Amino acid sequence: MELKHKDAGKVVQRELMASYYGDLEDGEGPVAYLFVPGNVVEILRPFGFRTVYPEINALQCGIKRVAGENILKAEDMGYSADVCGYVKNDVGICLAGGSTPLGRIPKPDLLVCNFSGCNTFIKWFEALADLYDAPMFLLDVPYLRDEASYQQDIEYVTQQLWDLVAYCEDMTGTTFDEAKLRETLEYSRQAEDLWTQLLSRARLRPSPFDAYFEAVFFMAPINVLRGTTDCIDYYKVVIEEMEERSRAHVGPVPQEKFRVVYEGPPCWPHFRAFWELFKAWGVVGVASTYSKVGGLFETGIRHDPARPMESIAEYVINCYTNWNLKKRSELLQQYIEEFEADALIIHSVKSCRSFSVGQADFREVFSHELGIPTLMIESDLADPRYFSQAQLKNRVDAFFESLEHQRIVRGS
Amino acid sequence: MYVAGVDAGSTTTKAVVLDENSHLVGKSLRATGANVTRASELAYEECLHASGIREREVSYVIGTGYGRYKIAFGDTQVTEISCHAKGAHFLFPKTRTLVDIGGQDTKAIKVSDKGEVLDFCMNDKCAAGTGRFLENAATVLDLELDDIGPVSLRSENPLRITNVCTVFVESEIISHLARGQVVEDILRGVHSAIGARTIALVRRVGIEPEVTFTGGVSRNVGMVRTLEERFGVPINVSDLSQYMGCLGAGLFALERAQGASPRRVKRVEAGGS
Amino acid sequence: MPVTAGIDIGAGTTKAVLMDEQAAVLARVSVRTGPFLEKAATSAFEKALRQASLNSDDIEYVATTGYGRYSYPPRDIQITEITCHARGARLLFPGTRCVLDIGAQSSRAMRVDEEGRVLKFRMNDRCAAGAGRFLERIAKALEMDLRQLVAASLESKNPQPISSICAVLAESEVINHITQGKRAEDIVMGAHLSIAERVLALLRQVGVEEEVTLTGGLSLNPGMVKALEETLGKEVNFSKESQFAGAMGAAYLGHWRLQRRGGRS
Amino acid sequence: MQQTDHLSSVRELAQDVSFSAVARWKEETGGKAIGHFPVFAPQEIIRAAGMLPVGVMGAWGLLEVDYADSRVQSFVCSVARTTLELGLTGRLKELDGMVFTDICDVARNLSGVWKRNFPEMLVEYLHLPQNVTSAASVVYLERELERFKGKLEDLSGVKVGEDSLWEGIEVYNHQRELLQRIYRIRRESPWLLPADEAYLLGRAAAQMPVEDHVSLLERSIAEIEARTVKSRDNIRVLLLGPFCEQPPLELLRIVEESGCYVVDDELLQTYRWYTSAVPTNGNPLRSLAESYIERARLSSVRYQVRRRREAIVEWLKEARAEGVLFCSAKFCEPALYDYVLYKEALEAESVPYLHLEFEEKMSAFETVRMQVETFVESILFA
Ligand SMILES: Nc1ncnc2c1ncn2[C@@H]1O[C@H](COP(=O)(O)OP(=O)(O)O)[C@@H](O)[C@H]1O
Ligand SMILES: Nc1ncnc2c1ncn2[C@@H]1O[C@H](COP(=O)(O)OP(=O)(O)O)[C@@H](O)[C@H]1O
Ligand code: SF4
Ligand code: SF4
Ligand code: SF4
């Protein structure tokens, strides 16, 4: 059967990203660099900033297979083999004068270091501040550690958001337009609703899409284009595509055999091969934490024009990696129950301690305490050198082999 | 009816033939060397020879081990993780924890009362602390592989070996020798170093008795003793420990042959499938 | 005329050189090191004396270097092989600005000034995958000896990359290549190239400049030279004496110390 | 040299990985003990709550790590690994609580691992403001310290009064002053006091009440200043990098044996956080919070408004150092990022430097020795 909306989500995403990078190359206006988790793009848009997300560049370079080269350039400069590959990729881009397969990345006029959930972010922008000789605004985001500190943290972040507003006014000579902020927030909110709706469709059997390997592409607009109407329109398109897939009983694999939840980032430099390891077993991701790094909207977090700064502060603090391990583990458990998953797959990446440290404890919790089959595998999200296909295949095969075997024995 | 299991390991290739009552009819073992396909063919031939049966009497062959996809004459393949669990369960039905140390890797497997894999972990990206490590130590000390275990047990004053890198351990051993340390103490240190690494891996799946030790390194009494000390429980080892992978493969083959479709008549040519 | 000795006690081989004041080499010998370092040093030194028909009283100063530099008690001074190889490379090729020293277990890159003084250096500290021992293992996996290995590497037209970072796991990769029907010479060259990559990564960290000199045991391996030149995109200095660079540098610095005796204490 | 008996007892105490001194203290006083991970801890508040702050900074390479290896991946620094091993092997059972601060992603997530594995302990994670320019930061930190104080009060059942906070601030000020004197000796006459001995004297603070440490320092300083030791022709270096994980003693020894004098370093950051005395007026928590923002030493785990390169050059001049040994703990990201920034600055100033990596349990001392010797030779044979 011919599907009318086939690959709409992918095609439109590609167009949107192409035009986003096109605008970075030829567009006008000051440039701010931001991090994806907890980004405060809504505050910057009214000032006319074009925003660059170095993590997205790193991700794209990974997929386009140039991350390896960039990383080597940074290592030649003295960066260790043991530090985050995203940072090195970005330093490599800087050393290459901003040129990437996606287009030329403009230099920053301002670095907004919203460091939700990752201290490496600070070191990263410190390095860029040095390399580009650009000013840096540090938005200090406390870790969500304790219920008792939540209120104090929200107030602290809110105050700094006003500091940022003042900083931007100063820098651009534009007065802050609160009405515009509210409008932007309203667009964000609508897109967040749709994105949440989209992801919840993975509850269906079969799931119309892979909530890891496909969702990480669908997530680009919510991370990059939040606060625009393009973003809203995009999710309408994807939802249509998924509705159609469901009507036709089409899913990401010919036959859905295992439903799993994924924890941790994917391996960008070997994305296809990595996915194939699972596809071969009829595995479908029904939920993943990585697709939520840009915001945990399904927990009810929303940008809200009625409470502009507070809602931004709430969003900023409630990013997946800014959550303490207990909350993260509870979220995983909730995913497994809600999406009726058969297993948990933990992909531990060397680059990202923020994600990885503590994953072995998750493994303990799920496999030993909750009795949920759990597979932990290692590679990297940025550095192509840490991917050992044969080893990974061995593990993935053994894992699903034994799941399959147990199913046969138990007659389910 | 006969079935066979072939385990193309990184270091050695092993094969067994079983009859329909799961009895071992014959076995063989040879170095894998440079050509996995060839080694598995030879091991299989030798095994048939040792069993005194002809190839066409074998209804089903399963390949396992890191070279399992290279075993052209097999009917299908199963990972060595599942196979070791199967084999260990067959020989020691109470096995709950399985440790397999081979030439280049170490695995810890949690096994159910039915012999299914419940959980497993493997060492990563580094050959440190595996059979190869012991082989290197043996070479540097000018000993036979068979001797290092017994010699290590004579140690009264074990040294601490800090380096588990398979390559660098050579220089560490040489410098101990140069300082006049005795061979058994060095060897005991080498065994302890592997023991420490192994137990850390096994802890990931949890240590639940009974513990069974398989793979080539289980032939080393020094290693068995070290692990028993570390685990604090006796450990099952059998003469067939190194064959556990192909034994498991053979048992899977028997299940397939008895349960599912009989062996396809058409032979699969080497190379194609 | 004073003569000094430089003894380079390496992990694989021990080299001794006798040198006069004009930096002319009077003797050079190399012996296998084995487990007893002092013995190896003594034997190399004695052989060198015999070669130059001198006896130990004729030697004014003994400088040791290499991994066993502390293991020869009669020495006057010990100097690291990095400092020594740098000087030695400069003696062999006066235009040297970068030195690559690849030995059995370690490889190092240095940038030096016009006198052969070390400005910056890096060495492999993690794995043995970037040095001679790696090639020896590959040779073993391919059932070749070193000479055959070198000969094979020069025949390669289509080198097969080896990506494993581990010398041991690389062996299985090699075996994999063989099984896939890859030619031995291509595999061997792939291994040389992978060492070259690793060493050049060290070199880039200290900064690449004209001229680059290769020292250490792997300078005897033309396949290694070829791999380095290809990866680097330019010529690399080397000679039959390159493996003595460490011992030469030590002997040379011995003279330097002799002249300054009583200077810095 | 007068490597006296008292040093060996200091070593014994400092290297006691079963923390028996803590057990003794608890028995004698009936008080509680709170452990803290390296780099920073509000010891003043812990002490004011009648508790003993205990520095937990790994295990000197003395442990065979096996439990923790199954919990942390291979790419994680040793101090996180061995600290966890101490916990999982029951060696920290005397601790009633454990404090972590936001120094890096590893330490942060370790706090979560700790919570899960040691539910009987009070596990606190303190967020220390990284934004050092916002007016909100001091207020925020004061609230955070207040929150922490509340947790300790809940644990002990006793309110912490202002007086005891002031008392704590004063005695820690005194301790820091004495440590500064030790460092002054290192700067002015490093031959009097070997680097490893100086280190042990400081590290002893981890397992003793601050008053006892103060008297240990007082006694030692008097003894050291009376020493007569010949100076050697060593080069003066700054040891950067080990602000969190502590290098093996042998490394410190080798650095000096190979011809260096370490004239200043980043070791034992926890006990040297403030560059000058915490003022003893106003409100004590406010005073601590302000000092954290205004009197903090240069550190890789705290955002620096001034560029690191400028700060490092200034420090070099101040210490009259001829070179820099940048010793980073293996896998320590904050240090490894800063290395690049420092390196650029040092090259611009033509200051010789050497980068070394260490691990708590390392065996490659030969490699270290060779690199340090070469470094020294490149200066001496110039
Ligand atoms: N007699 C023996 N004594 C001690 N160790 C042995 C003995 N025989 C084999 N080994 C060890 O077993 C290893 C091979 O184990 P094996 O399980 O066959 O490996 P793989 O399946 O990975 O090929 C060798 O590296 C060697 O260290
Ligand atoms: N003739 C040769 N051809 C090829 N390689 C050689 C030759 N001689 C020595 N080598 C290589 O050089 C290495 C020894 O180098 P050397 O610098 O002597 O080491 P070290 O100083 O560490 O002892 C050996 O590992 C070997 O691979
Ligand atoms: S450590 Fe993780 S979250 Fe941080 S920059 Fe790297 S990949 Fe991103
Ligand atoms: S060479 Fe040694 S340390 Fe390196 S990966 Fe191999 S076994 Fe591990
Ligand atoms: S040593 Fe470095 S990475 Fe490890 S906990 Fe300390 S600061 Fe973090």
Structural notes for this entry:
The complex is a heterotetramer of chains A (412), B (273), C (265) and D (382). Chain B has 273 residues and is an alpha/beta fold. Chain B folds into 2 domains: 1-92 and 239-273, 2-Layer Sandwich (Nucleotidyltransferase, domain 5), CATH 3.30.420; 95-237, ATPase, nucleotide binding domain (Nucleotidyltransferase, domain 5, 2-Layer Sandwich). Chain B is built from 8 helices and 10 strands. In chain B, the strands form 2 sheets. Chain B has a 5-stranded mixed β-sheet. Chain C is an alpha/beta fold. Chain C is 42% helix and 21% strand. Chain C is built from 8 helices and 10 strands. A 5-stranded mixed β-sheet of chain C has the order 3-2-1-4-5. Chain C is globular. The mean pLDDT of chain C is 88. Chain D has a domain at 20-161: Rossmann fold. In chain D, strand 1 (33-36), helix 3 and strand 2 (52-55) form a beta-alpha-beta unit. Chains A and D meet through helix 6, helix 7, helix 14 and helix 15 of A and helix 5, helix 6 and helix 13 of D. The structure holds adenosine-5'-diphosphate (2 copies) and iron/sulfur cluster (3 copies). One iron/sulfur cluster (SF4) sits between chains C (127-129, 165-168) and B (126-128, 165-167).
Keywords:
heterotetramer; B: 273 residues; alpha/beta; Nucleotidyltransferase, domain 5; 2 domains; 5-stranded mixed sheet; D: alpha/beta; Rossmann fold; 14 helices; 8 strands; binds adenosine-5'-diphosphate; binds iron/sulfur cluster
Gyration radius of chain A (Cα, Å) is: 21 Å
Q: Largest interface, by Cβ-Cβ below 8 angstroms: which chains and how many residues each?
A: A-D, 51 and 56 residues
Helical content of chain C (DSSP H or I, runs of 4+): 40-55%
Order of helices and strands of chain A: HEHEHHHEEEHEHHHHEHEHHEHHEH
> What are the segments of chain A in which pLDDT stays under 50 over at least 5 consecutive residues?
none
